[in-house]
Amino acid sequence: MPYEALLILRIIDWAAVPVGVFAFIHALMQRPDAYAAIDRLTKPAWLGITGGAAVALLLFSFADIGWMFWMAGLVAALVYIVDVRPRLIEVQRGQRW
């Protein structure tokens, strides 16, 4: 594989790590009752999911044999960021007029 392709894959690998860490930190900082209010999994469940995602993104690489674990970690972190995070922010902000 050419050097440029390996460099691009490495950049993608390392760009995904902050996404997983951000998802975990955001889940950690939210109130437990907000998860119940949005009718999603509990706070400990999301901490486990996002924490596992961050670890998978750190340990596995997209270009190695563990690419499925890396991909699962990225999907889990993105599901939290795209689906759960906006609802948590909305419910904790309150109703706006």
Topology:
Blueprint: H1 3-29, H2 32-37, H3 43-59, H4 67-93
Task: Explain what the structure shows.
It is a single chain. The protein is an all-alpha fold. The chain has one domain. Helix content is 79%, strand content 0%. Helix 1 packs antiparallel against helix 3 and helix 1 packs parallel to helix 4. The longest helix has 27 residues. The radius of gyration is 16 Å and the shape is elongated. The chain starts with a helix and ends with a helix. The mean pLDDT is 92. InterPro entries: DUF2516. This is DUF2516 domain-containing protein. Keywords: Membrane, Transmembrane, Transmembrane helix. It holds the Pfam family DUF2516.
Note the main attributes of this structure:
single chain, 97 residues, elongated, membrane, DUF2516, DUF2516 domain-containing protein
Query: What's the order of the H and E elements?
Result: HHHH
Report the helical percentage.
over 70%
Strand content: under 5%
The chain-level structural class is mainly alpha
Shape: elongated
* Domain module tally: 1
Low-confidence stretches: none
CA-to-CA gap between the ends? 56 Å
**Number of separate strands:** 0
Largest sheet: none
Count of helix runs: 4
Q: Look at the structure and give the mean pLDDT.
A: 92
Rg from Cα: 16 Å
